[in-house]
Amino acid sequence: MPPAGRRDANDALTLRGPDRARRMRLFATGLLLVMAVAFVVLRRLSGLHPDWNPALGYAIAFVEAAMVGGLADWFAVTALFRRPLGLPIPHTAIIPENKDRIADSMATFLRENFLTPQVVARRVHGFNFAGAAGTFMGDPVRNDPSRLRGGAANLIADVLESLDPERLGNQVRAGLARQLERVEVAPLLGQMLSAMIADRRHLPLIDSAIRWAGEALEANEELVRAMIRERANGLLRFTGLDSRIASSVLDGLYKLLAEMIVEPDHPLKIKLGLMLEDFAAKLVHDPETRERVETAKRELIANPAVGQWWQGVWERLRRKLIDAARSPDTALSGQLTTMFAELGGALRDDPRLQNQINRFARRTLVGVTARYGDEIVRLVSETVKRWDASTVSNRIEGAVGRDLQFIRINGTLVGGLFGICIHAVDQLL
Asked: Of 384, 390, 387, 383, which is closest to residue 96 (Cα–Cα)?
C-alpha cells in the first residue's frame, strides 16, 4: 500500500482532471457565446452605420464562421459522451453505446501489443534486473537501510504471525518425518561411529560415560546398599556381614571406575572400544541390527510425546523469531542490514550471478505472460464491461476532456479565420 502522502497526491490528481475539463468546457462554451453576442452586435452596427460595412463585413464573417466551427465541434465532442441536447440523434453517445466493444478492443490491444511472450521477451531482453536491484540495495545514498530492514523484518514477522502455529508446526514436523523415513539411519550412524573410533574420538565419550557412572553410583549409594542387604540371607544380616559386603562391593566398583579413568589401556576400556567397533560394523553390515534401528526410528517418529515436544520447540522458536523481527535492537536487525548490503554488492559486481538471475527473471516474466496473459486481458475487459455507461463516459472524459475542449476552442478560432478568408475571396471576385 502506498504511503498516505502519495495516496493523497494521487487522489488530488484524480479529482483535478474532471475539474480542469469542466473549466475548459465552460471556457469553450463561453467563447461560443461571445461569438454569438458579437454577431448580434455587429449586425446591429452594420445597420446603424452603413459606412462601416466594408470593415464590419470581415468581422461579421469571422464571428459567423466561428459560430459554425464552434457549434460543429461542440456537436462532435458532445456526441462522443452523450446525446447532444438529449435528442436521439443516430451515432451519438458513442462511448456509452459501445462500451462493451471498447472494452474488448482495449483488451485485444493490450493482449496483442503488451502481453504476448514475444513482446515481453523483446522488451526485457536487455534489461539488467539483477544489476538494478544490486545498485539499489548496495548504494547507501539511494537506499534507506532502515526502511529496507524494517520492511523485511516486518514481513517475516507478519508471515509467522499470520500462519496457523499448530498447523505450520505439524507441517514442518511431517516434512522432517518424511525425510527421516526415507533415510536409513543405521549405516550413517555406523559410519560416523567407525570414523570416531578411527580418530580415537570415542575415548572422551567413554571417559565421560565412566565419570557419569561413578557420579550415579555415588548419588545412589544408599539404594545399592539396600539392594545388597535385601538379597543377603538372614545369617549375613544377623551377623552384620551384609553391610561389610555392600561396602566391599561399592569400594570395588569405585576402584574399578577410577582405574578405568586413570589407565588409558585398561582392559575394560579396551573391551568397550571393541564392543563399539563391533556395533558400528553391525550397523553397516548386519541386516537384523539395521532393521532394529529402523524400527526404533519409526516408533520414535510416531510417538505422540515426540510430536508434543516438537510442537513446544517450534512455538518457542517461532515466538523468538517474531520478537527478534519486531525489535529494532536485536541482532536480527543488524544481520538483515549486513545481508542486504552483501546481497546488493554481489548482485552489482558478479556478472555470472547477474546472468543467472536475469535469465531466471526473463523466463519467469515470459512464462507468467504465456500462462496468465489471457486472464489479465479478460480481467481488464470484464472490469470495463461491469462499469455503467456514465462511469465509462466520466472516466474517459475526465482523462481527455480538457484536450477535447481545446478542439472546440480551436474550431471556433480556426473557423473564424476561414470565414475571413472566404469573405476576402468573395470581395475580390
From this structure: 390
SS3 35: helix
Q: Which residues, given as ranges, of the chain have pLDDT below 70?
A: 1-18, 49, 51-53, 137-157, 159-170, 172-173, 228-244, 324-342, 401
Q: How far apart are CA 393 and CA 389, in angstroms?
A: 6
Cα(75)–Cα(383) distance, integer angstroms: 29
Residue 10 pLDDT: 43
Copy the grid coordinates of residue 295. Answer: 524400527
**What is the spatial distance between Cα 158 and Cα 177, in angstroms, rounded to a whole number?**
27
pLDDT of residue 402: 76
Query: What local confidence, expressed as pLDDT, does residue 152 receive?
Result: 62
Kindly tell me the sign of the dihedral angle through the C-alpha atoms of 190, 191, 197, 203: negative
- CB neighbour class for 280 (10 Å; exposed up to 12, middle 13-18, buried from 19): buried
Cβ proximity of 377 and 115 under 8 Å? yes
DSSP-derived letter for residue 163 is: S
Could you tell me the residue ranges of all domains in the chain?
Answer: 12-97+387-428, 171-325
* Residue 104 Cα distances to 113, 327, 400, angstroms: 14, 51, 20
Inter-residue contact 376 to 115 (CB < 8 Å):
yes
pLDDT, tens digit, for every residue of 57-73? 888 889 899 999 888 88
Q: What are the backbone dihedrals phi and psi of residue 261, each rounded to the nearest 5 degrees, phi first?
A: -75, -40
On whether the CB atoms of residues 103 and 378 are closer than 8 A, the answer is: no
Q: Rg of the chain's alpha carbons, rounded to an integer?
A: 46
Show the cell assigned to 16: 483535478
pTM equals 0.41
